[in-house]
Every structure is written in structure tokens, then in C-alpha cells.
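Ligand-bound model needed. guanosine-5'-diphosphate.
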Amino acid sequence: MRLSDLHTGDRATIIRVEGRGVFRKRILEMGFVHGKTVTVLHNAPLHDPVYYRIMDYNVSLRRADAARIEVVLIESADTVDIPPETETTVMHAPHAASADVLSLPTDERLSPPETRHEAHRIRVALIGNPNCGKTSIFNRASGAHEHVGNYSGVTVEAKEGYFRHGNYKIEIVDLPGSYSLSPYSPEELYIRKYLSEETRPDIVLNVVDTCNLERNLYLTLQLKEMGLPVVIALNMYDEFERKGDSLDYPSLSAMLGIPMIPTIGRTGEGLHELFDALVSVYEGTNTTVRDIRIHYGSIIEPAVESLAKKITQRLVLPYALPARYLAVKLIEGDKEISRYIGEQPKGQFILSARDFALHNIDEYLTVASDAESIITDHRYGFIAGALRETYTSNNRQPKTLTDKIDNIVTHQVWGFPIFILFMFIMFQATFVVGSYPMGWIETLVGWVGGLAESLMPDGSFKDLVVDGIIGGVGGVIVFLPNILILYFFISLMEDSGYMARAAFIMDKIMHHMGLHGKSFIPLIMGFGCNVPAIMATRTIESRQSRMITMLVTPLMSCSARLPVYLLLAGAFFPQSAGLVLFGMYFLGILLAVLMARLFKRTLFRAEDVPFVMELPPYRMPTSRSVVVHMWSKAAQYLRKMGSIILLASVAIWFLSYYPHYSGEAELSALSTQLQENIQLTEEEKQAKTEELERQIHIRQQEESYIGRIGRAVQPALAPLGFDWKMSVSLLTGMAAKEVVVSTLGVIYTGDGDDSEEATQRLGERIRQDRDANGNPTFSPLVALGLMAFVLIYFPCIATVVAIGRESGHWKWAAFSIIYSCSLAWIVTFLIYQVGKLLFV
Ligand code: GDP
Ligand code: MG
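Prediction:
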């Protein structure tokens, strides 16, 4: 009976609140929870809203909302209407827990809600693979004698039975067995129809064969996706125990958000607990129940999300099927669902949106894979991940190639060293292999610079082109090959399925560190670019974990930081550049873990919700998808060159060129002085002139706008060993971290001798830079500190914006700026000061 069915004066006990999400939460918060008594104060026909009294206060509800609250009538105002009682069992308000009774107001305690009433019904459907023991459980529970057979296809259509459990009358339906809910066989279609139309049960009792979990859970995931409340009977538990394997089913149950009870269908063992669990799920008091979400990967997932959003906005469906489920089905190419959607008003719009999405997906897919198989892979990957953490087989022989590879790369001891080794190879290759094409581009940039130098007339425009544009953009563009190589490795890792394993290995470590395993996927994505990584934290359901992950993601060295590392490591650590590179990435990971731990202890205290790391089967990466990936990154990098890097370079050049001080007066004064001097040789005179030119150049830079800004900031950074030029490039690098390099390219113009600098590589110019006293501004130690600072400080503007948007609060964006800059200062200070003690 529904709350909306009651008349004025009726009293009833609340059984449960249907629906999900915000609506349910609001209603529950208003006090409409299981076991509470509600009285109708005013309910005139056609009158909306209706007034109720609950827990000593009055509330009004819209009739439509009241219709979603299930109640049992305690006392009708109009006693004549009550049908004669036939049941012998006395109906208690279901589990009106003693604490609740005590807290009730006096008048309610005087007339306890245990009056004559029919037991409440729960409609349960038995679903499971063929031959897993559904009919056995059905017979045991209902006392029926349906045919049980040890072969599939015995139950051909639904059979109903009834039994009592506690205060409920349970109506149980035995359905044919099926492996999946895809529309490939008549049984599967039949079941799906049964589950999605008016016959939709209150609870699905999913019977699984515990000896065959991997295959059985595939159906379970689909039930979950349909938004059905599921309880699992881990059947054949006797056989499973005999097999000698072990299963941590409480963890598995927590990961999947489904209560699981071991049962033996043949003897009826465990059925009582099973039905207890079923009742608690029905009443909404089971704490295990949780929505799960399978992430379908970088190609499919965005399409699913946008389609689901359109379905929510445009369609009003008669049965409450989750929009995400429909979206996944449409992308899978499910004909039945397509037809069903097509019949709905505005359904055609959804179908054309689906076609468009599929068309886009096709661009990225290869002949070998299609949307449907990717979706299946991810479901099985989800199951494999969950079982890998909870299931231990005593049979050590791996079955498939994927199992064999996984036994090595996710090995308890070897998994981590293998991961580190792979990372090391990746960064070594990025540097070593990348240095050849990098050299060619450097030569080309130098040649263009030299050409401009010799062809253009002297003047400020020439300086702008040579120092500003060629120096700035050219300094960054040389790293294009390295970035492509890095992305080559990243896409290999993603496409082969190793990325998921890397996350799996880190998951264990992260658990020890108190952080969520699932957080590691966004973190690894952060190696590419932090912005999509921060968006990827959406897959993390717990708000606290999501916030922590968002705040530490900027510590992952994105590809924009790579040019800085390459420049400095190449200039100051030419022998071990790959190692330094690897060290910087590792430092980022280490800090991320430490900071996550700190945040968890201080800002976001929360208990861990177990999550599943998905382990899809390994696939040979196709050259096409790798090339597509690399090309899109190259295009992105070049666009960045043409826009933000170019603008920043030009702006920095202007700021460093003006106010212009040419020092002509001093030079001519010197030359007249030298002409009169007869004691000096020509060489000595030449040296004196050059020295003055150098001084003038330094003064020009220091007196320019940017020099003033830099010198204003520099005292704060002096304890880190940074001079004003580095300080300036750190300031400009806030826009995007490559700008650090382009700024260095513009302001490290060498010693002011124009003819040489244009063709000189930036690394050399930096190494040879001297301050006014002739001391080198850089040293390997300073370079190391600068790399660490660039790694940690200020996430770029785009990342800060992403953090603000995704966290829903700009204070977190501000927080990420403040904490990262402070951390950068502290870490660099330690590196510089300790390094100075050790090496100088
Ligand atoms: P259904 O196809 O899912 O309806 O499965 P049935 O109920 O027909 O059972 C299939 C076979 O498994 C029958 O031979 C049952 O006796 C047997 N069976 C059912 N439950 C159990 C159990 O918990 N343990 C064992 N060892 N066998 C079971
Ligand atoms: Mg059967």
C-alpha cells in the first residue's frame, strides 16, 4: 500500500521509500524512514500536497512523492473499511526496533502498531546462469516440487511460489537460466522483459555458482546496471569448499555493493540468512547496498555519459530503467532496446545521437574491436579485478595467456620492480631516442635564427623575431619528438591493458598508504595532462577520496613539464639525463602519496570504500590506434605553440626589452678613452669593450620591466638558489609549464653578442650564463632544484580551473595553489641547502 492511498486520519507504518538518489535522501531526511508511524492529517481528494504527521511534527508531501513511499496500514479512520482479517499471524510493524518504539510519543506507545493486518508482500525473482541451483532454492523455500535437473534448460518459464519470512509474505518466481541479458536467445529476452516491465520484482535474488564466479558475475553486473536491487546467493558453497579455493566474500560483497550469503540449495543451508538479507535490502536498511559503476574506458565512456544525459533530459519512460543502462545498451548495439527507445516520444532524437556517437567511436576503433566487445571486455575486466583481490585459487596453473602474463606483472614481489623498470625504460627512451630528432630540430631552429639574424636590418623588430619568437617558441618546439615518444609509451600501456595492471599494483601500495586504489588511474593519466586526469576523478564515488585525488594529481609530471626536465637535465646531467628524468617523475609520485596521506589524516577523514580495479584482457595494441593517439597529441602540442607559448614569448620579450637601455653613451665614452690610450694592445682594448658590452646587456635586462618584476620576487626564492631570471620564468610558467622554457629562451640571450646567440642551443646559453660578477648563475644543483620546483609549484591555470569546477568550490582551487607553492618551496629549499652542504 502506498502512502498516497491513505485517507485522512489513517495511521500507517512506513516500510520503505522507493527511488534513489536525491529524492530518496530528502524523503529519508524528513523522517520517512522504515518503522516510523505516520498519520494523515489532511488528504482531501485532488488536494495536493497532503499533510502528514511524523515523529511529532507536521510535513506536507506532494502526492506524487507520497506514492513512492510504501506503508502498512495500522489503523484506519474509517474502521468499517477494514477487510476481515484472515491471517493467523499477527502483523508487527516490521522491525519497529525497540529503540524506535521507546522514542515514539506516548499516544503511539499506547496503541502499538501490531494490529490485524495482512503481511506485506515482497516480490522476488530468481535469476542466475543455468544449472546453478535456482530451482533447488525455489523448491526449498516454497515447499514446491518443481523439476530439478542437472542440465540446462530445465525451467522454461516462470513458476511462482509463496512463503512467509518474518513479517513478510515472499512471492518468489523461478525464471529460466541465462548467462547474460543480451538479446541473443529467447530466454534472455524473456528475462529481460520480465525485469523491465510491470512484472519488475522488488528484489532480484541472483543465484550464482560459487565454483564458477567469473562467468556468473557477468550476469550480476548487468542486473546491477539495470538498477535492480540484488541479493546474491553464493550457491554450491559446499562444492566450492571441497575444491579448496578461498573467497573473501565479505570484501567482494562490499566491492560490488551487493549482499552475498553462502548457500547450499540442495539442503537449504543458508537460506534463512539469505532471506534476512533480502528483507533488509527491501527495507533499505542493508548497509552493503551501493551503486557501482563500470567505467568503459576512454573511448566508450564519454559517449555513454553524454547519451545517458540526453536520455535523462528528453525521455520519459514508463518503467524506471536507469539512463546509463539504456545508453550502454544503445552503444552496444542492442536491437531490442533501440526499437524500444525508437517507439518512445523523442526516441528518434536519442537514436540519432547514438548513431553520431557510434560514428565518432568508429574513428578510434580498429577492425579488431568494436564497441560491443570493448564493453564486454570492461565488464569482464571489472570482475577479474574484483576476483584478483578476493579469490585465491589453490590450483596454481594459470589458464589463459592473460592469466599467465598477470601472474608475472601483478606478482606480489615482482610486480612493482617490473613496473618501475618499465617506467625507467620509458623515460630513458624518451631522452635517448628523442635526442636525435631533437638535435635536428635544434639545428633547424638555429639555422632559421641565423638566417633572420643575417637578413633582417638591425633594430628592435629584428630583436623581437630573433630573441622573442624564435628564442621562445623554438626553445620549446624542439621537445616535440620527446613528447611523442612519451605518448607512444603511454598509448602502448593503455591499449595493451598494462595501464590497468600498473594501477592494480599501485592499488595495493596506495591501500597501505591510506589512499584509494582507484585514484591511481587519474594519477597515471596525469602523466599525459593533468586536466583530463582531474576530470577522470569522477569515477571515484567517495567524495573524500575524490577530493584527495584531485589535490595530488598536479604532482604527476604532465608532458608540459617534460621540456623543462629535458632542457635542464640535458644541460647539466648529460651522462644521466634519463635517470634524472625518471627521478623527477618518481619524486612526483612519492610526494603525491605522502600528501594524500597527510590530507587523509587532516582534511578528509573517511573510511575506505572498497573499489574494484578493472583488469581487462591483454590486447595487442594496433599501430593505428597508437598513431591516432600520438598524432592528436602532436597536434595539441603544436596548437599550444602557436597560441599560448607564442603570445607569452612575445609578451616576455616586450617586458624584457623595455625600457630600452642601449648604453651608447658609455660605449662611445669608452672608445674615445681607449683611442687615447697607447699603453694597451688591440686585444686588450677589444676585451675591455666586450666586458662593457656584457655589463650593459646585464643592466639592460635588470632594468627592464621583467627584470624589475624578477628582482622584486627573487628575494623570496633566493634561499632556493634561484636568480631573478629563474624567478621570472617561474612566474610566467604559471600559464603553462612549457612557458618556463620559452621564457628562459627569451631572457637567456647569451652575452649580448648577437651573431653567436641565435645559433647557440638554449642549454649551452644557460650553462654559460654569468651574473654581473662573472659567476655562473646555474649549477647542477640549482638545475635540480628548479626542476623540482617546476614539478611541484602552481598547477597550470587550466588545471586550477579544472580543480575549481570539479570540486564544485573555488576555495579548493585556491587551496591547491597555496599548498603546491608552499610544498615546492620547502622541497626545493631542502634540495638546495642539503645539496650545498654535501657537494660544495
Ligand atoms: P537451475 O538450473 O538453476 O534451476 O538448477 P537446479 O536447481 O536444477 O540444480 C542443478 C543441479 O545442482 C541439481 O542437480 C541440484 O541438485 C544441484 N544443486 C543445487 N544446489 C546445490 C548446492 O548448493 N550444492 C550442490 N552440491 N549441488 C546443488
Ligand atoms: Mg531450474
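The pocket of magnesium ion (ligand 2) is lined by residues 134-135, 154-155 (CB under 6 Å).
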